[in-house]
Amino acid sequence: MAERSFAKEVEKLRLGAGEEFAGEGILAITKALLQCGVGYVGGYQGAPISHLMDVLADAQDILGELGVHFEASASEATATAMLAASVHYPIRGAATFKSTVGTNVASDALANLASGGVTGGALIIVGEDYGEGSSIMQERSHAFAMKSQVWLLDPRPNLPSIVKAVEDGFELSEISNTPVMLQVRIRCCHVHGHFIAKDNKRPPMTVADALDAPRRDTGRIVLPPASFLHEKEKVQKRWPAAVDFIRQNKINEFFGSDHGSVGIVMQGGMYNSVIRALQRLGLADTYGDTDVPLYVLNAVYPLIDDEFLSFCEGKQSVLVVEEGQPNYIEQAFASMLHKAGRGTRLVGKEHLPMAGEYTGQVMLDGIGAFLRAEAPHLLPGEVRAPNKVGDGVDTADLINVVPGRPPGFCIGCPERPIFAATKLIEQELGKHQIASDIGCHLFSIMPPFELGATTMGYGLGPASASAFNSPDAKRRSISFVGDGGFWHNGLTSSIGNAVFNKNDGVIVIVDNFYSAATGGQDILSSRAGNKTKSTKHPITEAVKGMGVKWLRHVDRTYDVTKMQDTLREALTTEEKGPKVIVASSECMLNRQRREKPLVDKAIKGGERVVKPKFGVDEDICTGDHACMRLSGCPSLSVKSLDDPLRDDPVAHIDQSCVGCGNCGEVADAAVLCPSFYRADVVHNPSGWDRFLESARRATISLLQRRRESRRLTFANA
Amino acid sequence: MLDAVPPFRPRAGAQDDERVIKLAVLAVGGQGGGVLADWITDVAERNGYVAQSTSVAGVAQRTGATIYYVEMARDTGRLPVFALSPSQGDVDILIAAELMEAGRAIIRGFVTPERTTLIASSHRIAAVSEKIEPGDGRASSSKVHATAQAASKRFIAFDMEKIAADNGSMISASLLGALAGSDALPFTRESYEQAVSAGGRGVKASLAAFGAAYDRARGTTVPAPRVAEPTIGDSAPGSNVSGPQNLMQRWQALAAHIDVMPVAVRDMALRGLRKVVDYQDIAYGREYLDRLDKAVALDHADHAYALSIAAAKHLANAMCYDDMIRVADLKTRSTRDKRVRREVGVKDGSILQVTEYFHPRIEEFCGTLPAGLGSYIESRPKLAAFLDRRINHGRRIRTDSFAGFAALWFIGGLRRWRRGLLRHKVEVAHLERWYALALGYVGQDYALAVEILNCRRLIKGYSDTHVRAQSKFDRVLSALDLLKGRPDAADWIRRLREAALKDEKGDMLDGALKTVATLGESAAR
Asked: For the DUF6537 domain, which residue ranges apply (chain B) (predicted)?
């Protein structure tokens, strides 16, 4: 069950011709796929296109009605390999994943697919995770398009443009027999907007049709001599076909005046930011109308030489707005101008930063600097020579006040106790070489845990510890991998590799029943039933199957003491080979989403329900915060006491506590302090409950009264 | 033609009908910023505006700082070009769902005095970095308030989290109410309420929170005055002390002693006295006052009685050390039961079960034995280890059950024998050393004596944490030999103490101690 349900929104996918669609970018892309008569769709979740996968998963009824096959691929490589169905058959297929991490994984399949080429349109929708909010290394998808020679679309970030890009992409792919990548940037995926829908189209040929009449063509298979011919075909046939299509169908757009001494050329995705900068410089209106000539590349690869050169005609200088580095587009344009012997000055990274996100301010500064240098007459007086405005407020002090707030484990996260146990075991046995992996559990690298030295790729945690395997070492390495990473790549690349190479390290598989970091999608080992997928395949069985001999399963991670004991045993046992610990507890975010409505309903319905919550006795807490150094739970925080005798704030647990048990377990395992308590509220108690309660309370009150009547009592003391 | 004067173009930010209104929401992941952004978009569309909202979903929502961004313009039939993220100096309305996020917005340049209405909830959600310091690591809210006032065109700040909680709703509802009440957007209250109602879930509570925040933002409700700080009058002897007649008489006599102390000392002394009597008994209160008198006798109004006030505070804390008896006593009081019920929110008809987490070690066990027996065991490592294996386990005790409550009630009752127990002997010896050390400096360096008293703040925690705290206390005071006689000795002790409160192991303190060591060298040269 994914974090977000689109069950209601997917009804919008049924809209017919002429109706207005209103919603998020990713939903618009899904609708566009159906309007294009796509035959099959697959992909792997990951921000910013996680929701695209969730939308598709929730839309399975609609897809089924249209005869569209959908699958949640095991990895991005799987998703891309799936596009093989478009190699011999005129079936349109789409795959989606996060870029550039997913594109890295996919690039083997992508290269093979690109080499042989496709018959049916093959569209790869990559969610570009670049800039603010990104959780990955900052690289460009552009390089993949260049190296495999697949075409790259980067449409303007509004719904009609994205929908059109999907349509164009399929046609372009078919005409040039080449897979097409469509890149959508992070905010574009979640942008809320409108477009006019068309009818959905059933695929003219379904995968079922293809299965009934199989085809093959040795010329499309990547094996010599065909592979040598593919390379020539790419430049001699497919490239020119793509260029012609892009030119004839006016995929790239021109705005503004067709005269003028300067111009700006940009990636489609940068259009809105460029317009905003021009608006702020007084050169564009609310609707983007401007006199500055603009050349918008909705297709950023391949580039159209004559289109660009004619744009440059009569211009002294042209600014290239290209986010990220290396500046491939700028280099290509410079080469075109040089070879054509043109005198137009090309500028780009002189005014705009070589690296980093092109935010509003960066764009305003860069375009402003370009225009001031090249065409100052265009600028209104106040922009050309602004009155010096004092910054007004000095924020220098504030920078030292406002704390950083990186993402962290959620309230009640079952991974927190795993790292609390690891931190405690390090206090006992010393520091270890720890390899981390991609997933929520990577938050262990941040305070308060500060565990983990590297992260090398999804499912590659244990693989990245593989060199740390020496008979001379006194300490073993520890590596982490999540259940998502385990099924994506880890089973073979990490576990199989460790078994085969007799790695002596400790591997912790963090099993929270979902691909939690990407939004709680089901995976092979999910324990919930899933109508359309096969789940409930235990990780322990897979690990055993790979040949692991030393295997322990902690089926309740909140048992910090047990977790600690298991880690100690793994780190100290005489047994050789990989020591694998599978630490399982359900992702609390998903569990709450699943259980909370049920619990509320049960309480309302009069059923007996026990609801736990943790608390802190503020007069017993001494304000050392040792508990928080082993937790970091958002619901466990500090609070000031209205007591001048106490200097430091004490621990406090707020209403958001879900009673996961970590606080009590940690206080116990780390021998912290006795100020934590668990309060279980029994709703709708049974008769026996009530009887016991009244008997207990009578006795307890008696004892309390007896003692309190013989001493002084200070109210608010 | 470009060279000609460009025709009039309504610029973003211009005062006209086609102006784009830019609104950013800075929130902490999990606060429901997405719901708020959806409501705002809905309100705009209901009022004949075109609106676009964007967000960055994914990892940033996992309790990290995150931004939602909405742009809107009157619908003229043409689609405006909206930006997808906020720009510095280009935001009309900034909503911060937590006070430090308002600070972050100011740092990032999203708040400008000429145009930005800043709506911020004044409550705090402490970041991990603020929580993990052994002392008080929290950021200064007043700094943000002051800067926000100067940095924004209008600053609306109140505790919207509390308004939401009081009305059984989420902060998104009260933030929307504050936005509506601010009149920063040209929309009616009804259209906001329609958007909330259209949401369908928890509508009643959301509307209540919305309404309360709306009124507050308009200034039609005045916040309830903060409960006044308890003054000496409030806690005057007899005002909220109760007990048997004979004890009350003795208490009055004891408290009367405070009335002869300098006025500046009385409040803290009375608080301290209440604490120690509550901890042990009237005689213990007498001991406290006797000790305190020593400081008062050495003190003088010229110093505003800083020494006596520090002594009143830290003597009380030192005398009320945290032992098993104290913990058991506190956990079995009827007031505690009431507090837990209030905090957990136990309604009529429900039953509360309370589980306590204890992990006693041999040290705690011996501390609760008569001094002779306790030290006998502690001096025999093998015996101690043998017993530790039997004692050193985590124990969960149900204080709502007969057996669990009775066990703690019994331990709490050991109070009357506390003076004869090992822990008490150790604590008293430590206290006397520290107190004598501090008072010994009063003549030559008054400020240093006060700072030595203040070092008591370092001692806290249980078991290992307590051991570490003791070690920090000792390390700070170890600098005394190097520092005494220096005019800035008190200042250095204060700095060392603050450094000791910065991290768990005292790495910062060690660094500061090294600096102190070099001070000594340069002085020697």
From this structure: 265-477
pLDDT at A407: 87
DSSP letter for each residue of B364-391: HHHHTSBHHHHHHHHT-HHHHHHHHHHH
Domain count, chain B: 4
Measured between alpha carbons, how far is B148 from A517 in angstroms, rounded to an integer? 35
Residues B389 and B298 in one domain: no
Q: Which of B400, B389, B361, B136 is nearest to A672 (CA)?
A: B361
When pLDDT is averaged across residues A391-406 and rounded to a whole number, the result is 83
How far apart are the CA of B312 and the nearest CA of chain A, in angstroms? 9
Q: Is the peptide bond before A462 cis (omega within 30 degrees of 0)?
A: no
How, if at all, do strands A317-321 and A299-301 pair? unpaired
Q: Which of A155, A125, A108, A153 is nearest to A41 (CA)?
A: A125
Least confident range from A276-290, A414-428, B25-39, B510-524: namely: B510-524
* Number of compact structural domains in chain A: 4
Please indicate if any CB of chain B lies within 8 Å of the CB of A67: no
Domain for residue B149, yes or no? yes
Give how far B525 is from chain A: nearest CA, Å.
37
How far, in Å, CA of B95 to CA of A290, rounded? 32
Torsion of CA A658, A662, A663, A668, to 10 degrees: 150
Residues B278 and B191 in one domain: no
Domain with A379 in it: 253-383
Which residues of chain A lie closer than 8 angstroms to B272, CB-CB?
645
pLDDT band for position B223 (cuts 50, 70, 90): low
On whether both B127 and B264 belong to a single domain, the answer is: no
Distance in angstroms (rounded) separating the CA atoms of residues A205 and A140: 35
Indicate if the pLDDT at residue B232 is higher than 70.
Answer: no
* Eight-class DSSP state of A441: G
Q: Is pLDDT at B521 greater than 70 in this prediction?
A: no
Q: Are residues A65 and A207 located together in one domain of the fold?
A: yes
Q: Given B258, B284, B319, which residue is the final one in a domain?
A: B319
- Residue A202 near residue A37 (C-beta atoms within 8 A): yes
Structural domain includes residue A406: no
Nearest of A156, A223, A159, A224 to residue A190 by alpha carbon? A159
Q: What is the pLDDT of residues A54-101, one digit of tens each?
A: 999 999 999 999 999 999 999 999 999 999 999 999 999 999 999 999
Question: pLDDT digits over A174-217, tens only?
Answer: 999 999 999 999 999 989 899 999 999 999 999 999 999 999 99
Structure tokens at A4: 């977000």
Rg (CA), chain B: 30
Distance CA B169, CA B146 (A): 29
**Interface-testing mutation among B98, B241, B344, B405, with chain A (most A C-beta atoms within 10 A):** B344
pLDDT over 60 at B13, yes or no = no
Q: What is the mean pLDDT of chain B?
A: 91
Rounded to the nearest angstrom, the minimum Cα separation between A201 and chain B is: 28
CB-based contact B330 A619, cutoff 8 Å = yes
Looking at the structure, do residues A193 and A133 belong to the same domain, yes or no? yes
The answer to whether B282 contacts A712, with C-beta atoms less than 8 Å apart, is: yes
CB contact under 8 A, A271 and B106: no
Average pLDDT over residues A601-609: 96
Closest Cβ opposite residue A408 in set B63, B100, B460: B63
**CA distance readout (Å), B420 to B231, B284, B425, B427:** 36, 13, 7, 12
Asked if residue B404 has pLDDT above 50, the reply is yes
DSSP state of B225: P
Of B135, B275, B361, the CB nearest to A645: B275
Identify the domain boundary among A337, A358, A383.
Answer: A383
CA distance B279 to chain A (A): 10
Query: Is B337 a residue whose pLDDT tops 60?
Result: yes
